[in-house]
Design brief:
alpha/beta, Rossmann fold, Helicase, Ruva Protein, domain 3, 4 domains, five-stranded parallel sheet, 16 strands, about 45% helix, about 15% strand
Length: about 450
């Protein structure tokens, strides 16, 4: 690896790595690896020694064990996050200690390694850490630039998203993006990738709900020639296609339970086995997942594995619905009109703009774009008027509330409760038959009945 291009140190100065571990053989192994990469390392055997070195020297990476004689590696993670924010820190955990790894990532660690330390993974982690972009100017210059990758608006909600993207782009932690359909979950994932150490590698989006269940394993992990009828040559899967980059799993809640088990193992072990192969191969990808559904409710209903949920949801980024940031509607309208029509975009009459500002937008930004595409096709005299918008009157509101003063959650809960009560009534409150009628599992129906407070 050429380290002369790393910008966070003066010309001619070697990148320095701080290694914190109480085992001398681990320190020696990492020290030798770092030296062979043309880097310099300082070693510490305790939290106290690490603190002293951090006060004297600036580091481009810190590698710390989780268990130290005088404290925990989490202390170092938090210290570096508070005082030395430019230094990424990775933790070394005991084999199979997934809980410690997740705790470290939540505390702000860049990544983790499991013992025994694999040299290939160690070298990859070091390269990624040294490839991180500088923090200054990321939000102002990067996240607001580019015609296809903009977070438009100045509301508090969207400013918070920008700040989170700046922070999350400096981590390797698995990320879960929540939010309703049309709020820009894939856009946020792309921005995080584009401003991360993985920006030079592929961003591979996958719609989990669009893959037939019998093809999922081969699509995700690839297959060997002859693995099944029609497998005439070796083929890479999504994990291999995203090597070194980011794998974005959209609508991850649609994965069947069997595939969830295989995905969990791939994330934990950082290895995959192609269909028809007898050996596993290492993969280096960052997982970002998203769904418009409430993933925790899927766990409670038994349709999504709890252990996978906690591995995917190490850090959550919530994309706010458009009804929570009405002040961003006007700049969004102007930007979308330019995208749709080019520089000669029509104007929007004040009455039409006001109607858009108070509209509830159940489909969020995607719906706004569709409304404007229709309006520009219908408008005359190069101006969009209220009639061109064709807004549904029952969903146009004067504030952030939904139908008849209900929030969207209240409205959806009411509709769901009504459907369940009707099914229970038709089946004389036979829950098994009602679940079959509704097309859900018995466990899912029982959970919904308890959550909604339905009594026989």
């Amino acid at each position: 690896m050429s380290i002369g291009k790393v910008e966070r140190r003066p010309r001619g100065e070697l990148a320095r790595v701080l290694v914190v571990d109480d085992e001398a053989d681990i320190r020696e192994l990492i020290d030798l690896t770092v030296a062979r990469m043309g880097l310099s390392a300082d070693c510490a055997a305790s939290v106290a020694q690490a603190r002293q070195l951090l006060e004297k020297q600036r580091y481009q990476l810190c590698l710390t064990d989780m268990r130290l004689p005088d404290g925990e590696g989490l202390e170092i993670v938090r210290l570096i996050g508070e005082r030395y924010g430019e230094t990424p820190v990775a933790v070394i955990t005991a084999f199979g200690s997934a809980q410690n790894a997740v705790a470290a990532l939540k505390a702000g660690a860049f990544d983790y390694l499991a013992k025994p330390v694999a040299l290939e993974q160690l070298r990859s982690l070091i390269k990624s850490a040294l490839n991180l972009p500088a923090r200054s100017g990321v939000v102002d210059e990067g996240l607001t630039a580019g015609p296809a990758a903009q977070l438009i608006g100045q509301s508090a909600a969207i400013e918070h998203v920008r700040q989170m993207i700046d922070k999350l782009s400096r981590s390797q932690a698995p990320l879960y993006i929540s939010g309703e359909s049309g709020t820009g979950k894939e856009l946020a994932a792309r921005l995080i990738h584009d401003h991360s150490a993985r920006r030079g590698a592929p961003f591979v989006p996958v719609n989990c709900g669009a893959i037939p269940e019998n093809l999922m394993e081969s699509e995700f992990f690839g297959y060997r020639k002859g693995a099944f009828t029609g497998a005439e040559s070796d083929r890479a899967g999504f994990f291999q296609a995203a090597a070194g980059g980011t794998l974005f799993l959209d609508e991850v809640a649609d994965l069947p339970l069997l595939m969830q088990v295989k995905l969990l193992r791939a994330i934990q072990e950082k290895k995959v086995r192609k269909v028809g192969s007898t050996v596993e191969e290492a993969v280096d990808v960052r997982i970002i997942s998203a769904t418009h559904r409430m993933l925790k409710e899927c766990v409670d209903a038994g349709t999504f594995r709890q252990d996978l949920y906690y591995r995917l949801n190490v850090i959550e980024l919530r994309m706010p619905p458009l009804r929570e940031r009405h002040e961003d509607v006007e700049p969004l309208v102007q930007a979308l009109l330019v995208r749709i029509c080019g520089p000669q975009a029509p104007s929007v009459e004040p009455q039409a703009m006001q109607a858009l500002k108070v509209y509830s937008f159940p489909g969020n930004v995607r719906e706004l774009e569709n409304i404007l595409e229709r309006a520009t096709a219908l408008c005359s005299n190069h101006a969009v008027v209220l009639e061109d918008l064709q807004l549904a009157p029952e969903t146009a509101v004067s504030d952030s509330l939904g139908r008849d003063g209900e929030t969207l959650d209240d409205y959806l809960n009411r509709v769901e409760k009504q459907a369940i009560v009707e099914a229970l009534t038709k089946t004389a409150f036979n829950r098994t038959a009602a679940a079959r009628l509704l097309g859900v599992t018995f466990r899912s129906l029982r959970y919904r009945i308890e959550r909604l407070g339905i009594e026989e």
